[in-house]
Design brief:
Elements (H helix, E strand, L loop, with lengths): L1 H14 L3 E2 L3 E2 L11 E4 L5 H4 L11 E6 L3 H15 L8 E6 L3 H8 L4 E4 L6 H10 L3 E4 L7 H17 L3 E3 L7 H10 L2 H4 L12 E8 L3 E2 L2 E2 L20 H12 L11 E13 L1 H8 L12 E2 L3 E14 L2 E10 L8 E7 L3 E6 L9 E6 L5 H15 L4 E4 L5 E4 L8 H18 L6 H22 L3
Parallel strand pairs: 3-4, 3-6, 4-5, 6-7, 7-8, 9-15
Antiparallel strand pairs: 1-2, 9-16, 10-11, 12-14, 13-14, 14-15, 16-17, 17-18, 18-20, 19-20
């Protein structure tokens, strides 16, 4: 009887898969279909955020390869924080190799099948290329390329990934932000929005500005950034770093499902970069370091002011659509946090996301019809259609010209949770063993745009 009970329990366990609640893996029931993570040199907190939740399809044992030092310790401390929290703790088991030969060790052992890359960008493109050549899938934080040389290697990496039947994918969290989602939905509502308005470099059809801050909190604690974060040779200029998200939004919102050809569809018309000055006190509050490392000294002015490459603007056209992108970094927010401003002009309406004091520093979407005739009924009809997919979404007229889209708080899950949503999408692609046909051309177009714009901006920098 005891033997029969054991057999029944085993059958029940098999029926519910090899993962226990909250991401805890049954160590006796691991199979080859499970995703096994390899975390390579996690110098950025995004590497930990993809593990903020557990996933039934991911083995809870994660192999970490990194040089010894504060960066890997900060990564492990975040994972520990997720494992020990009171509510819905994770169950990650981090197996760590520390050493100067960390990359060679990972490629020699190949204990997993998905490489997570989020850290120093100087060698990231090389690690991407080596990973796909080794037959490993890659989930890479942005940016996957920070200059035109990197972009050439990234093109080769995508060719290798296709040849080896592995998936190379970057972490685009802004596609999961609810105001961006609703803005995209309304762009393709012909009755409300019409077509994208023809514009020019001076009057772009699409404008997006993003402001980030060096001093911030992550998972409830002050973030300590590594010193190399301020070196454009290691982190990259803002125009090739955070602007990646903005360029991606333009493609994803305005040209959804369209396979782009970066050799034909994109033209950079102008670009510029400029620094954000930081004092030694500000630098110390961000990094915990009281002195600048030697590699930052070429960026020092007046003996102590760090002129970090933190701001960029690009003007370009994509399939004839004029776009202006601005990415900026400041030291610390006076109120609120990172800010996003996005304007998409249509022939019938403009859709604008604002995130200022009036919005309580939360992103809010506004609808601004070109003609107020029948605008109220058109807006309400469009929002009613949206609410069938996102229940509770509504519209409120705020003045004679504008309607504010009211989005229930349940959809605002926070930026950190978006990393889990990206991981869920990637896991589905791994199951299907392919990305959507437009994703790879889109990634190539995106990194071509950012690195080509940087190349143009560098030619005029300092003049």
């Amino acid at each position: 009887m005891k033997r029969n009970t054991t057999i029944i329990l085993a059958v029940v366990a098999a029926a519910f898969g090899c993962q226990l609640p909250s991401g805890k893996v049954d160590s006796e029931k691991k199979d080859s279909s499970m995703v096994r993570l390899l975390t390579l040199d996690p110098g950025h907190f995004h590497a930990a955020l993809v593990q903020k939740t557990g996933y039934p399809d991911i083995d809870t044992t994660v192999y970490v390869y990194a040089p010894d030092g504060p960066e890997v310790e900060a990564h492990l401390n975040l994972i520990k924080q997720y494992n020990t929290r009171a509510e819905n703790p994770t169950h990650w088991n981090e197996v760590v190799y520390r050493g100067a030969d960390f990359a060679e060790k990972m490629f020699a052992e190949k204990k997993g099948n998905v490489v997570v890359l989020a850290g120093n960008n100087r060698l990231k493109t090389d690690y991407i290329k080596r990973s796909v050549e080794a037959g490993l899938n890659v989930l890479g934080d942005k940016p996957m390329a920070i200059n035109t040389d990197n972009f050439s290697r990234l093109v080769e990496a995508f060719d290798e990934a296709k040849k080896n039947n592995v998936l190379l994918y970057d972490i685009m969290t802004e596609r999961s932000e609810i105001t961006n989602i609703i803005q995209k939905e309304l762009i393709h509502d012909a009755t409300l929005f019409g077509d994208i308005k023809k514009g020019s470099e001076k009057e772009p059809s699409v404008f997006i500005e993003s402001i980030h801050y060096f001093f911030k909190n992550v998972s409830g604690k002050p973030l300590v950034r590594p010193s190399w974060f301020f070196d454009p040779a290691q982190q990259g200029d803002a125009i090739a770093d955070v602007a990646t998200h903005l360029v991606d939004l333009v493609q994803w919102q305005c040209l959804p499902g369209v396979p782009l050809d970066y050799t034909k569809d994109i033209s950079i018309t102008s670009a510029r970069i400029w620094p954000t000055p930081l004092t030694t006190t500000q630098f110390a509050s961000i990094t915990g370091k009281n002195e600048y490392p030697d590699y930052l000294k070429p960026l020092i002015e007046k003996d102590s002011i760090l002129q970090t490459h933190a701001n960029g603007e690009m003007n370009y056209t994509i399939k004839g659509i004029p776009v202006k992108i601005i990415a900026r970094w400041d030291y610390k927010a006076a109120a609120g946090g990172d800010a996003h401003h996005a304007v998409v002009k249509g022939t019938k309406s403009t859709l604008e996301i604002r995130q200022g004091k009036e919005e309580n520093y939360k992103p809010v979407l506004y609808i601004i019809p070109v003609d107020n005739k029948n605008a109220d009924s058109i807006v309400q009809r469009s929002i009613a259609a949206i609410s069938t997919k996102y229940p509770g979404v509504a519209a409120e007229k705020v003045n004679a010209k504008e309607w504010k889209v009211i989005i229930p708080a349940k959809y605002d899950i926070g930026h950190e949770a978006h990393f889990g949503q990206v991981m869920e999408r990637y896991l589905q692609y791994l199951k299907e063993k392919k990305l959507p046909e437009w994703e790879v051309p889109g990634m190539l177009a995106k990194y071509y745009t950012t690195t080509k714009a940087l190349e143009m901006a560098m030619k005029g920098y300092g003049q």
